[in-house]
């Protein structure tokens, strides 16, 4: 079976996490959920895994990805019930180290909009909403943003609504953006290209953004190993991870 | 007591919160009763609701909705909510998970507000300051700016649980979300339960009692009361049901869905 873009994104997400990180994923987060399993099963065994389904450290051998990230089936092998509010308490204490969040619009500082396209009072499109974004983005040390639709529509000059804070001057905070084409980090308030995925050109990356990222020294995004792929396919035999790429 | 007999505890114009998140443990049988009883002008409030809120909005029961996220995850945007928000049919107030959960916790604690970190610098803040639901204050000890979130005290909370006794002692198994805070902050608490157990179930195992009887105004036995959302230890979410709901809504057949659902036909799939 071929390695797909989803798998490369999962690997890139996993690589942002270090051993000992305490990590939360929210609803509608198939790629982050697999990435957290992948990190914990490989380089980060002491990662603390908080799923929105509230079962602490689910067992990867029995975990199967579902259409809802809160599916109670994700309780398999969980060691405790951790209410979401408890992970928020940890965040307030600076003890939630990493969070994965999406962005319907992302600007050059890694600020995000998940609220609406157009005016808030009379939106062209009312998006589902930012969930924990406004609360958590100023509190976590590692903010990992993702989009499966790398385009000018997503990478905008000006957000229609500022739901989440990206780069914040003087703060110990690492902002990574993982798309279906490339990986970026926000450095000193600018979006810097870190790597492009296999078979993607830099031209393709840059031309599909409304602003110019900083392109200096960059690499090719690490492709998952065959071992990684065994874990990814065991967790998601039904290919639910691909559904975000549709539409 | 039947689920229909408790509907009198909810009035037109009430603020209502419901248990669960997304496709997990929403009190769907009770939602059906609200629609049947044609309740109007409700203010509905929850952290991350889904099909429960979307049905209430589609059925015209809602004046105002407050949420941190309202959608159907990988199954798409919530069709009625989206239309109603875009057409100006309802008032909506987006919030953020850490604020709404702590607002409910403040309600449960009997505190007028709680300070909540984060949020400052986002566009949600001016919206809520205007509505009077949040205020930036100075921490009286450090002097730093912090957001005060006003306590959320719903008129009614409807919480679906796995087990309860006839007195309203209730046991939530698995994820609790903010349901215990919702139960304790609301002025009136309605419990719907998969199973009614003897009080002996709690005696000797008091840790099973997540919401004790003195909070509870009414308890109703409703097997499959969360369906098509999930109830841990009882049944998974019915994703096929939600997919069908979305495609019927998209085809302009929401009214037909509601008629069939009220007659119980949608639940038989």
Automatic annotation (TrEMBL), chain A:
| GO molecular function, a single term | CoA-transferase activity
Q: Which InterPro entries match?
A: CoA_trans_fam_I (IPR004165), NagB/RpiA_transferase-like (IPR037171)
- Entry's SUPFAM superfamilies? NagB/RpiA/CoA transferase-like
| Top-level taxonomic group | Archaea
The alphabetical list of record keywords is:
Transferase
Name under which the protein is recorded: CoA-transferase
Write the lineage as a comma-separated list.
Archaea, Methanobacteriati, Methanobacteriota, Candidatus Methanoliparia, Candidatus Methanoliparales
């Amino acid at each position: 079976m071929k390695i797909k873009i989803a798998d490369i994104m999962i690997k890139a997400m996993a690589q942002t996490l270090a051993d000992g990180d305490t990590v939360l994923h929210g609803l509608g987060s198939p790629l982050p959920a697999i990435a957290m399993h992948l990190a914990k099963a490989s380089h980060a065994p002491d990662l603390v895994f908080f799923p929105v389904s509230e079962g602490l450290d689910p067992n990867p051998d029995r975990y199967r990805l579902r259409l809802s990230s809160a599916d109670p089936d994700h309780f398999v092998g969980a060691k405790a019930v951790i209410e979401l509010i408890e992970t928020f308490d940890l965040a307030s204490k600076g003890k939630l180290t990493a969070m994965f969040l999406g962005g319907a619009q992302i600007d050059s500082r890694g600020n995000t909009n998940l609220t609406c396209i157009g005016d808030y009072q009379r939106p062209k499109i009312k998006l589902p909403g930012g969930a924990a974004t406004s609360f958590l983005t100023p509190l976590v040390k590692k903010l990992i943003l993702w989009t499966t639709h790398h385009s000018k529509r997503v990478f905008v000059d000006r957000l229609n609504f500022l739901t989440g804070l990206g780069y914040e001057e003087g703060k110990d905070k690492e902002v990574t953006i993982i798309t279906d084409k490339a990986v970026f980090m926000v450095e000193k308030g600018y979006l810097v290209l870190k790597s492009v995925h296999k078979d993607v050109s830099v031209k393709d990356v840059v031309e599909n953004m409304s602003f110019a990222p900083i392109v200096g020294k960059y690499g090719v995004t690490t492709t998952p190993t065959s071992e990684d792929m065994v874990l990814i396919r065991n967790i998601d035999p039904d290919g639910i991870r691909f559904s975000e790429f549709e539409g | 007591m039947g689920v229909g007999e408790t509907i009198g505890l909810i009035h037109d114009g009430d603020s209502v919160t419901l248990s669960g998140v997304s496709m997990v443990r929403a009190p769907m049988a009770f939602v059906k009763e609200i629609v049947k009883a044609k309740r109007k002008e409700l203010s509905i409030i929850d952290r991350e609701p889904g099909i429960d809120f979307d049905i209430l909005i589609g059925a015209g029961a809602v004046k105002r909705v407050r949420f941190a996220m309202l959608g159907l995850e990988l199954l798409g945007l919530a069709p009625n909510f989206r239309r109603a928000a875009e057409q100006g049919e309802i008032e909506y107030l987006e919030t953020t998970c850490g604020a709404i959960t702590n607002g409910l916790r403040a309600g449960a604690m009997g505190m007028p507000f709680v300070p909540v970190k984060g949020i400052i610098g986002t566009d949600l803040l001016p919206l809520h300051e205007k509505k009077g639901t949040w205020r930036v204050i100075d921490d009286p000890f450090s002097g730093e700016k912090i957001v005060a979130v006003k306590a959320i005290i719903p008129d009614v909370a409807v919480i679906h649980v796995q087990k309860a006794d006839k007195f309203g002692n209730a046991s939530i198994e698995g994820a609790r979300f903010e349901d215990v805070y919702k139960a304790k902050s609301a002025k009136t608490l309605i419990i719907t339960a998969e199973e009614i157990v003897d009080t002996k179930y709690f005696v000797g195992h008091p840790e099973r009692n997540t919401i004790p009887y003195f909070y509870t105004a009414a308890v109703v036995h409703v097997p499959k009361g969360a369906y098509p959302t999930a109830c841990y230890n009882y049944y998974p979410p019915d994703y096929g049901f939600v997919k069908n709901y979305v495609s019927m809504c998209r085809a302009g057949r929401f009214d037909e869905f509601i008629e069939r659902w009220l007659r119980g036909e949608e639940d038989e799939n």
